[in-house]
Design goal:
Elements: E1 2-4, E2 14-15, E3 19-22, H1 29-37, H2 51-57, E4 68-73, E5 76-86, E6 101-107, H3 116-131, E7 137-142, H4 146-155, E8 158-165, E9 168-175, H5 182-186
Parallel strand pairs: 6-7
Antiparallel strand pairs: 1-5, 2-3, 3-4, 4-5, 5-6, 7-9, 8-9
């Protein structure tokens, strides 16, 4: 369904004002299982996975693939951000010559409402713009997911289309980097805290 993005991996950990974006480690396994089995996290994603199944199938070092960042706060994983290529079946034709990349994220419920998602996603978008200059990125979410819709707007995604899938109204937005982001990533004002998501 998705293909990895073609980048050098893993990158040097990315530090924001409060967070670290890094490659997955073995110590993250319990947090991955919490993400996969949380009813709150999966409200708009088809429901949680059964805990027993996750305990059995999640590898010792989960999520170790190009484009997947663990989000760390004070030494503990609070979520993930993934940048991946959409396959031919799911391409929106934003890039007719190739599959566009898509931003996805999951955060543990205790991390909601502190601005961590906006801070982490802004850093990931800066990294993406540096690695793949000028390449557009899409984000898809259910229109009923108010937090995700607010985050998309805050990050600068603009609506491409709305559609019906999995029995619910969906939204797709596009993000295009305005300029190389290395200077933005060094600025504490870009990666600073915010009030939502």
């Amino acid at each position: 369904m998705y293909e990895p993005i073609a980048v050098t991996w893993p990158p040097t950990p990315i530090k924001t004002q409060r967070l670290v974006l890094r490659e997955s480690e073995g110590r993250d396994r319990a947090a991955f299982i919490e993400l996969f089995t949380s009813p709150e996290v999966h409200t708009y994603l088809g429901g949680p996975q059964p805990r027993e199944e996750c305990e059995r199938t999640v590898p010792e070092t989960p999520g170790r693939r190009p484009g997947l960042f663990v989000i760390e706060l004070d030494g503990s994983m609070i979520g993930t951000i993934e940048l991946k290529r959409r396959d031919a079946e799911h391409r929106s034709r934003i890039r007719p010559d190739a599959g566009e990349a898509e931003l996805g994220y999951l955060f543990l419920p205790e991390a909601w409402g502190h601005g961590y998602a906006a801070e982490a996603c802004a850093a990931a978008l800066g990294w993406f713009a540096d690695e793949l200059p000028g390449e557009p990125l899409v984000l898809c979410t259910q229109t009923a997911n108010a937090r995700s819709m607010r985050l998309a707007a805050k990050l600068g995604f603009t609506e491409v289309r709305r559609y019906e899938a999995w029995g619910a109204a969906q939204w797709m937005g596009k993000w295009s980097p305005a300029a190389p982001s290395a200077s933005r990533r060094r600025s504490p004002h870009v990666d600073g805290p915010s009030d939502s998501a």
